[in-house]
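Lab notebook page, bench 4
Experiment: in silico fold of construct C2
Operator: M.H.
Input chain length: 94 residues
Purpose: comparison with the prior construct
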Amino acid sequence: MFSQNDLKGDIQMKLTVIIMAMLEKYPLTPVNHLFSKERKQFDELLNDYINQLPENDWEEHITTDFNKVCIDKIFTSSFQPDKFAIQPSMETIL
């Protein structure tokens, strides 16, 4: 089983991308760009998603869903990487 501390950093970013796609928003939309009603929907979907994660292999499940969103919704033929400022995480720097 996982704890709330496990859902931080890269896992939090993956969860945000997954839930944004479920909301039919562009997956890289920052959470703070949502209106209050959308934020409530985001929080509800996130809680539902987390509650449905398997006890074992939950991280693999998140990564699989994240990769699917990346392939289907982000890295498409219309993707323009020069339009995004990529911020490396501390984990990739260290």
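Observations: The mean pLDDT is 89. The longest helix spans residues 58-74.
Next step: discuss at group meeting.
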